[in-house]
Amino acid sequence: MEHETLSSHKYQKPIRLKGYDYTSDAAYAITMRAKYHCYILCHPHLRHILETEWTNLAQRFPGVEPATFMVMPDHVHCMLIIHEEAKGTFSVSQVIGAYKSIVFKVWRTHIQETGINLPMSIWQRRFYEHVVRDDSDFAAQTAYILNNPIKAALDKPKS
């Protein structure tokens, strides 16, 4: 089923698994992209905010474990684990939505306090998730996240 998005007015396929319960105890590989594919995530203070608030998610959402985390210039890769005790309590969308909102608010405050001329808006509206199937898939997703900076450097055109 296709639906029209508010931001682009283009038709896009849904990116969530039909019928899957995203409050299930499982591991999820997540990718969040920067708005307009800009390289804003390289800013040192924003990077600090991203890392700090990712770690703080465990306090805000008991039973949710913010795991492997990697900031790239225009996107973030991470693993999110919903444990048995949180099953049915928080969805992946709720946790990621809260994370993105908190990062935005802290970043906006920093911009307002310092007067730096950088965009306040950070995130694309949606995010990509992969439901991890088993231990082998978990290892593969974790390796992908950790090796992404190396792969990105190798993929850069040589001048």
How would you describe the overall organization of this protein?
The protein has 159 residues and is of the alpha+beta class. The chain has a single domain (21-144), classed as 2-Layer Sandwich (Alpha-Beta Plaits), CATH 3.30.70. Helix content is 38%, strand content 20%. It has 3 helices and 6 strands. The chain has helices at residues 44-60, 92-114, 135-155; strands at 3-4, 11-12, 26-33, 64-71, 75-82, 128-131. Strands 4-5-3-6 form a 4-stranded antiparallel sheet, with helices on both faces. The chain has a two-stranded antiparallel ribbon with strand order 1-2. Pfam families: Y1_Tnp (PF01797). Residues 23-148 form the Transposase IS200-like domain. One of its GO terms (molecular function) is transposase activity. InterPro entries: RAYT_transposase (IPR052715), Transposase_17 (IPR002686), Transposase_17_sf (IPR036515). This is Transposase IS200-like domain-containing protein.
